[in-house]
User: Which sequence fits this backbone?
């Protein structure tokens, strides 16, 4: 589903990512972990197209997308959530989801029929709202939601396009334990038709969800393996997970 | 899900304005009706700029470019090429759309304050050209512009009253068009664009195409107003392209309420009537308008439409 070959990015003299080569199978749940500054979010920005790579290639769904823009990759079925909530703050919860559905359904150029007579769009909005647990809050302004609920909406916007590949950048960051569990259930319930790559600091979430784990450290792949292998790796424990071997 | 919560109030205000316009029409003579037509045309320009500035968040300070383009297109085509003013009006709208696309395709690539400056500069370029071009009448402008022949519709466009009614009808049609647009999926995308470009792009939208499309449409509508303005006065001058025209329309839009469509139409009425009344008493009427503008921006950031909405909500709260 996704393949990177020798992916690199530097900002001036600062090399943030070097030679990241990995393959993620269709339907896989892959966690990317590593200390702050390891280059995890930069890696996501390269995958989604927000930042062009300094070197290397990216293949997605059988195509080389290295030079494709953000919107083009999104239309191919690559969706992401942001580490910091990136919502439409002056729109309501339902309207936020409607924007995502409209783009996913290629209805952005529908100019005449009012949105409130588009049962097709409203139906899809209701379905995603139910999926992310915000079904009864569609009319509320985004600003009325708790941080955790905004985080759920953030993931909901990414889900709206029924993506092939979903990049989740620290979906549980800043959440209470209850909210974290709800998010974990939400991700676990996603169908296997979606490939999920998740950056996460909460190791319970990582080991609970991931099929495989990639450990980034100082811009390179330190280790890759099943959760059990990663937990057992002396190097990863020393560099990241902490605790005596 | 109600993605366009202001739609009802927008319609109420538009219908009230139309009713007030018709009442004014019935109770005035030649000058009153000509003034009414002028207000209707400014309302059209204000509504089209609201599509850009209020909905898409593209603060354009060059709308005078398309206003003058529409006016001069009718002037040149009717007086120098012998075309009927009706045909010339159609061509003026087309020219506005084409120019809007060509200018928009370039300027929407820059963001923020640079967008404001670039649109200002492009508008000033046309002003400089019109001011110096002999063919365009230079600083004297073009006189003797005829009005469209609407006899096929049974209308005498040379009559001030008829012209005013047609201008009011045009303003109402523009309102209906923009209201539909605002309520459509496209309208929601525009508001999303205003709010968060990064996210909208990540959802797959082609921002350039969306921005260019609204810029083009707004230019076409403004050109229509310019074409009618030329016929109202029988005359165009480089003043139409001056940046102060763009500035005044932007003030009208902000005063009326960004993104409310009917609000900017109300803003056009308020500014034009206030200017008319104040000009009788003082040469410094711009000063008074300026103070009003500052007060609105400071105390009612959503403009007159926002005040109206807040007032109604408070009234409803009291009766509940």
Assistant:
């Amino acid at each position: 589903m996704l393949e990177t070959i020798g992916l690199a990015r530097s900002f001036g003299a600062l090399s943030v990512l070097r030679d990241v080569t990995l393959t993620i199978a269709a339907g896989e749940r892959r966690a990317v972990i590593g200390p702050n500054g390891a280059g995890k979010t930069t890696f996501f920005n390269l995958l989604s197209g927000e930042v062009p790579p300094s070197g290397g290639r990216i293949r997605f769904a059988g195509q080389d997308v290295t030079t494709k823009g953000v919107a083009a990759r999104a239309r191919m079925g690559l969706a992401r959530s942001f580490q910091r909530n990136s919502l439409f703050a002056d729109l309501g919860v339902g309207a936020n989801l409607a924007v995502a559905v409209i783009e996913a359904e290629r209805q952005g150029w529908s100019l005449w029929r009012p949105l409130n007579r588009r049962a097709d769009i409203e139906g899809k909005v209701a379905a995603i709202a139910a999926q992310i647990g915000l079904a009864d809050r569609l009319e509320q302004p985004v600003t009325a939601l708790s941080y955790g609920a905004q985080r759920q909406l953030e993931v909901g916007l990414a889900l709206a396009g029924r993506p092939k590949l979903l990049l989740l950048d620290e979906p549980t960051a800043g959440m209470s334990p209850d909210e974290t569990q709800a998010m974990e259930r939400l991700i676990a319930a996603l169908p296997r038709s979606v490939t999920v790559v998740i950056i996460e600091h909460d190791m319970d979430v990582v080991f609970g969800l991931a099929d495989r784990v990639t450990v980034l450290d100082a811009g390179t792949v330190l280790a890759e393996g099943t959760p059990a292998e990663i937990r057992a790796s002396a190097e990863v424990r020393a560099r990241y997970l902490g605790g005596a071997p | 899900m109600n993605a366009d919560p202001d739609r009802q109030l927008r319609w109420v205000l538009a219908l009230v304005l139309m009713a007030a316009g018709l009442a004014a029409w019935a109770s005035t003579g030649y000058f009153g009706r000509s003034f009414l037509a002028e207000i209707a045309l400014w309302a059209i320009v204000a509504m089209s700029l609201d599509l850009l500035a209020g909905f898409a968040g593209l603060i354009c300070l060059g709308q005078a470019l398309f206003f003058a383009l529409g006016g001069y297109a009718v002037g040149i085509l009717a007086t120098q090429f012998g075309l009927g003013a009706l045909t010339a009006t159609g061509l003026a709208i087309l020219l506005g759309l084409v120019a809007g696309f060509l200018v928009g395709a370039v300027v929407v690539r820059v963001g923020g304050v640079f967008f404001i400056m670039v649109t200002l500069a492009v508008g000033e370029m046309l002003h400089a050209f019109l001011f110096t071009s002999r063919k365009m009448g230079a600083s004297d402008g073009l006189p003797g512009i005829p009005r469209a022949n609407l006899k096929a519709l049974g209308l005498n466009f040379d009559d001030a009253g008829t012209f005013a009614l047609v201008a009011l009808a045009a303003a109402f049609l523009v309102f209906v068009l923009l209201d539909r647009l605002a309520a459509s999926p496209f309208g929601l995308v525009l508001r999303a664009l205003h709010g968060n470009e990064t996210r909208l792009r990540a959802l797959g939208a082609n921002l350039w195409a969306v921005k260019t499309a609204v810029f083009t449409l707004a230019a076409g509508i403004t050109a229509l107003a310019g074409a009618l303005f030329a016929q109202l006065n029988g005359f165009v001058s480089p003043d139409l392209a001056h940046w102060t025209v763009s500035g005044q329309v932007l003030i009208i839009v902000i005063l009326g309420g960004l993104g409310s469509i009917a609000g900017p139409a109300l803003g056009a009425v308020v500014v034009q009537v206030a200017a008319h009344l104040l000009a009788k008493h003082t040469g410094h009427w711009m000063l008074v308008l300026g103070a009003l503008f500052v007060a609105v921006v400071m105390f009612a950031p959503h403009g007159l439409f926002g005040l109206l909405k807040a007032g109604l909500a408070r009234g409803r709260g009291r009766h509940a």
